[in-house]
Amino acid sequence: MRVGIALDEKGIKYESKEENLFNKSAFLLEMNPMNKKVPVFIHDGKPICESLLVVEYIDEVWHDTAPLLLSDPYQRSQARFGLILLIKRYMVPEGGFEQGKEKRRR
């Protein structure tokens, strides 16, 4: 989701492939052998894993288009902190989002 938004914002054409998370393909396991999760962004044949890292990578590689991240290191760190808080607040255990609801604490 984040990666697609970043690519769209940068105006970068890409191919997205769906992955069955209960029956992971050999390709996914080869591209991300450490944690076997999506997303995996493949650029020039090299995989980049973890969506926040992929977004940073996209912003750095395609730096000629509108920036996704703030240029000031402190402001950038504060924006990342806010994003982490939002993710922790609205992510459900299965890895999706609950619309407008805070996840329940167990």
TrEMBL record:
Sample GO molecular function, one term: glutathione transferase activity
Keywords: Cytoplasm, Detoxification, Transferase
Record-listed E.C. numbers: 2.5.1.18
Domain GST N-terminal residue range list: 1-66
Annotated localization: Cytoplasm, Cytosol
Reactions that this protein is recorded to catalyse: RX + glutathione = an S-substituted glutathione + a halide anion + H(+)
Cellular component terms (Gene Ontology): cytosol
Pfam hit, one: GST_N
InterPro entries: Glutathione_S-Trfase_N, Omega/Tau-like, Thioredoxin-like_sf
SUPFAM superfamilies: Thioredoxin-like (SSF52833)
GO BP term (any one): glutathione metabolic process
Enzyme class, UniProt record, top EC level: transferase
Main location, first listed in the record: cytoplasm
Its job: Is involved in the conjugation of reduced glutathione to a wide number of exogenous and endogenous hydrophobic electrophiles.
Family stated for the protein in its record: Belongs to the GST superfamily. Tau family.
Protein name per UniProt: Glutathione S-transferase
Organism: Acer negundo (Box elder)
